[in-house]
Write a structure and sequence with these properties.
Layout: H1 7-10, H2 26-34, H3 36-72, H4 82-126, H5 130-133, H6 136-147, H7 149-177, H8 182-212, H9 214-228, H10 234-240, H11 243-289, H12 291-295, H13 301-344, E1 364-372, E2 382-390, E3 394-399, H14 405-412, E4 420-425, E5 428-429, H15 435-441, E6 442-445, H16 456-461, H17 470-479, H18 483-488, H19 509-521, E7 527-531, H20 539-552, E8 557-561, E9 573-578, E10 581-586, H21 588-594, H22 597-611
Parallel strand pairs: 3-8, 3-9, 6-7, 7-8
Antiparallel strand pairs: 1-2, 1-4, 4-5, 9-10
Helix pairs in contact: 2-3, 3-4, 3-7, 3-13, 4-7, 6-13, 7-13, 8-11, 8-13, 9-11, 11-13, 17-19, 21-22
Length: about 600
């Protein structure tokens, strides 16, 4: 079964992964499908590169030495040296030329791989069930398959072609040595088998060490990138003088990551170097046994030097280049196994589909005895929860942290479907609706919203581009008091935000939050969910925003999750959550008359505001 990419990507002909067990050799198959011409040229250069440094270099060196010796003893005139000299220079020049062209082709293949494989890998990750996205083990696989993709593929291609090149080189050398040292060549071939086995073992060990170090790398990267070197944390870092403590945490995690890899690297390098040195010793012993053949004039001195040069070259290839290649193939094997695991994880059908053009028409949404616990957690977050949301009404969810308010929105929007009980849209199970239908039904502003470093206008129209007019955008800017921000920017609404652009302007947290709110208001979804939407706003701005918001929400349904209870006065119905249940519900006046949990919370918060 194919994991298809979305329609916009199909037009760009990205590679399509299938759910199967990928092996290291599939690196070549995938590369050929993506860059067939470059791959064929690379194979041709590999064949040429296999013949030139071994057989041709041995013949060229032997010819040059024999001619030079004959000239030295007066058997040949001096001008006879030109041909073998030019031949040797041409062979060496071809080696350099092939190497340069090979590098250019490989660089081009790397670009094509990045362009064609990164989008489908991201697409696969985007389709995973949300349960797996929050799983640390799954996160490690996601990180390494995305981060190590290009390096693993390029190293894998290099490694397989190195093996092909080495095999061609050794085979061509065997042809030359058939009349001189065939037994010795066969001995070297058999002696190289343990080296290949050790190299594959080293590749597996190195890759596993790299995976194991990931958890520490994420931690020290957080300390270095997100805290110690983050401009937003400078003031607190200076005020509270916590830099030394966090630097120590960074160093501790960096050390653990380094040690876990260095320990394995030391053992694997020691083993592979030991095998390569033993191979070189065998080659030198074979060279020693051939001296008698030179003395007996069975072979010429030039042929002997050429053979020895080729032997040393083969030994270096088997002990260095080929050894590195087999190690990289071992790593590629582990990478492809992880990629296969990622592809086998359960995905959500239609997860990357765009919202449906026409939202679902509904009258009510009902939670009926819904219980839910997060994956790998035995504790129920929601406990037999039941309530009804009616079309066109405004709701407020209040309660302590961890009471289950945000979890309700995750179930409503289809992020999790592993709950007990029923969630019904006009009597129909919510799990029977497609992802595109649910996306069209809800517009959600989470409390940990993202700061998109793109132009302000693009920030506002994300996900809403086709239908938005300038009038609607102006209305949203007015409702969120963003017009003053727009007027202060040199390029107005088209000004880039953030620091990655030349003319980019960074905003305060409150301004970023206003943009996120405006983006949510511009959505065509009939249900708006806002989780702590005004946490970075001052009370006056917040109050004005809610007044404007109620005007814009006429005919639509809204859900507010907020710890600022003054905002809940605008809601038609307030749900008070505690321990995964609704312990009180009703309008503001009704709940205040009950003098229950909500009334006590409201009065306590009001006293604090008055005191302040």
């Amino acid at each position: 079964m194919c994991i298809d990419i979305n329609k916009s990507q199909e037009n760009n002909k990205y590679f399509t992964f299938t759910k199967k067990k990928y092996r290291a050799f599939d690196i070549l198959n995938i590369t050929f499908k993506i860059a067939p011409i470059q791959f064929i040229l690379l194979m041709f250069l590999t064949i040429v590169d296999g013949i030139i440094p071994s057989a041709l270099l041995a013949l060229g060196t032997g010819k040059f030495v024999d001619t030079a010796t004959a000239i030295f003893y007066g058997f040949l005139p001096y001008n006879k040296i030109y041909f073998p000299l030019i031949l040797l220079i041409v062979i060496l020049g071809l080696t350099r030329l092939v190497s340069g062209i090979y590098f250019l082709l490989e660089s081009n293949i790397g670009i094509l791989l990045e362009r064609n494989l990164s989008p489908p890998i991201v697409e696969v990750q985007a389709k995973l069930k949300y349960d797996y996205i929050e799983d640390p083990k799954c996160q490690e696989i996601m990180d390494i398959t995305a981060d190590e993709m290009e390096e693993t593929f390029i190293d894998g291609i290099d490694s397989y072609l190195s093996i092909i090149s080495s095999f061609i080189g050794i085979s061509s050398l065997f042809v030359i040595l058939a009349n001189f040292a065939l037994t010795s060549a066969i001995l070297i071939a058999f002696a190289s088998i343990p080296l290949v086995i050790v190299s594959l073992w080293a590749g597996k060990k190195n890759y596993r060490a790299k995976v194991d170090a990931r958890k520490y790398e994420r931690r020290y990267s957080y300390y270095s990138d997100e805290v110690l070197c983050n401009r937003e944390a400078v003031k607190e870092k200076t005020l509270f003088s916590y830099a030394d403590e966090l630097t120590k945490s960074y160093y501790d995690n960096f050390t653990k990551a380094s040690k876990s890899q260095l320990s394995v690297l030391f053992k694997t390098r020691l083993a592979t170097k030991a095998t390569s040195i033993s191979l070189l010793i065998i080659a030198m012993l074979i060279a020693y046994t051939m001296i008698d053949e030179v003395i007996l004039h069975i072979i010429t001195p030039g042929t002997f030097i050429g053979i020895i040069t080729a032997f040393i070259g083969v030994s270096n290839t088997l002990g260095g280049k080929l050894q590195e290649a087999t190690k990289n193939i071992g790593e590629a094997k582990e990478y492809m196994a992880d990629l296969s695991k990622l592809l086998s994880i359960e995905s959500v059908e239609g997860a990357t589909d765009e919202p449906a053009n026409t939202p679902i028409y509904f009258n009510k949404i009902e939670f009926r005895n819904v219980s839910f616990s997060y994956p790998a957690s035995p504790n129920l977050v929601l406990k037999a929860l039941s309530f009804v949301l009616e079309k066109g009404k405004h709701y407020a969810f209040v309660g302590a942290n961890g009471a289950g308010k945000s979890t309700v929105t995750k179930l409503l929007t289809g992020l999790y479907d592993s709950y007990q009980g029923e969630i019904l849209i006009d009597g129909k199970d919510i799990r029977t609706f497609s992802q595109s239908q649910l996306k069209a039904l809800f517009s959600v502003l989470y409390q940990d919203f993202y700061h998109y470093q793109i132009p302000l206008k693009d920030n506002l129209i994300l996900g809403n581009r086709p239908r938005l007019s300038d009038e609607l955008i102006d209305l949203a800017l007015d409702a969120t008091d963003l017009e003053e921000v727009v007027n202060s920017l040199s390029l107005g609404i088209d000004n880039p935000l953030g620091r990655i652009h030349k003319n980019g302007v960074d905003l305060s947290m409150g301004q970023w939050q206003k943009i996120a709110i405006a983006r949510s208001l511009l959505s065509n979804a009939p249900i708006i969910i806002m989780d702590e939407p005004t946490s970075a706003l001052d009370p006056i701005t917040e109050s004005n925003l809610y007044i404007q918001f109620k005007k814009l929400m006429i005919g639509r349904t809204s859900i507010f999750i907020s710890h600022r209870l003054a905002s809940t006065k605008l809601a038609d119905e307030i749900f008070v959550f505690d321990g995964g249940r609704i312990i009180e519900k009703g309008g503001y006046q009704e709940l205040m008359k009950k003098d229950g949990v909500y009334a006590k919370m409201f009065r306590e918060q009001s006293r604090r505001y008055k005191y302040e």
